[in-house]
Write a structure and sequence with these properties.
TIM Barrel, 10 strands, disordered N terminus, about 300 residues, two-stranded parallel ribbon, 11 helices
Length: about 300
């Protein structure tokens, strides 16, 4: 692993979380290491690892642990990436079966070096999961694929339960926070998905605390909703180290509740908002809420 996670002692009380890692967490974590797999839970220094593992959810990081982009908020290393592992789809599927996961999130580093951005590899991973994990729900959290609709179609045709792409922050901050990305391009992915599979659930996430204004937050939520995003996650930005983009503000739990209500009032099908919220936090519950509100059968087979 190539990351290091910093813990700030001066964080407010609501951002101090006691990590309890029981035997189940330790067993599952060891299994992932033995299979040579990466999880974004570890690479991105997520504070919810033990809780998610214990609740039957994990986020697998495919296509290596080196990113071709260098976003200032991200803990994942920016290095020359390795060639995709052809055995990775089967390894991930096997790990999910061993862990008995009800819900698996598959994400990746950005692979601008690959012609399809890694879309074909995503598709193969989903296919292998479906072969041996009949009841596991699968969410993909994808990069922007440089806005290529063919790549989006490749992933969509594999029929994930949720297609997720994080908007991350408000458009004004893109040049500082994620200079190699494009706000409008990211928004376009949700419309592409709906044009290819109208019933597929779409999802996105935004971090707060990078210096955005309330007006900018509200406009970004509205942009996401108008772009046909169904599920929204809102969490506190926590800088992985002193070398990353600084935390400008700690957002109170009350403010997170406010933004949850704002988003629900806009019409999002499900919203999870709070200081420790990340894309996969309570993902299964959020997914089932969205299915109910979208009037989809909550107990139907995932395929």
């Amino acid at each position: 692993m190539s990351t290091s996670c910093s813990v700030k002692k001066d964080r407010p009380s609501w951002l101090k979380k006691r990590i309890i890692s029981g035997e189940k967490y330790k067993t599952l974590h060891q299994q992932i290491l033995q299979k040579g797999l990466n999880t974004v839970c570890t690479e991105a220094c997520c504070p919810n690892q033990a809780e998610c593992y214990s609740n039957g959810t994990a986020t697998f990081l495919i296509l290596g642990d080196q990113c071709t982009r260098n976003c200032r908020f991200c803990a994942i290393s920016h290095e020359r990436p390795c060639r995709p592992d052809p055995d990775e789809p089967e390894k991930v599927a096997g790990a999910i079966k061993f862990m008995g996961l009800e819900y698996a999130v598959i994400t990746s580093v950005t692979r601008d070096d690959l012609p399809d951005g890694g879309a074909g590899h995503f598709s193969e991973v989903i296919e292998q999961i479906r072969k041996i994990n009949f009841k596991t729900r699968v969410e993909v959290l994808v990069p922007d694929f440089n806005g290529d609709k063919t790549s989006v179609e490749t992933v969509t045709k594999a029929i994930p339960d949720v297609f997720n792409h994080n908007i991350e922050t408000v458009p004004r901050l893109y040049p500082e926070v994620r200079a190699q990305a494009d706000y409008t391009r990211s928004l376009s992915l949700f419309g592409m998905v709906k044009s290819l599979a109208a019933d597929m659930i779409t999802k996105s996430g935004i971090m707060l605390g990078l210096g955005e204004t309330e007006t900018e937050i509200e406009q970004t939520l509205l942009d996401l909703f108008n772009s046909k995003c169904d599920i929204l996650t809102i969490g506190q930005y926590l800088a992985p180290s002193d070398k990353h983009y600084p935390i400008i503000q700690y957002i109170t739990p009350e403010k997170f509740k406010k933004w949850e209500k704002v988003a629900l009032d806009m019409g999002f099908s499900a919203v999870t908002s709070g200081p420790f919220v990340r894309s996969s936090y309570h993902a299964l519950e959020t997914f089932e809420t969205a299915r109910l509100n979208l009037k989809q059968d909550p107990i139907s087979s995932p395929i």
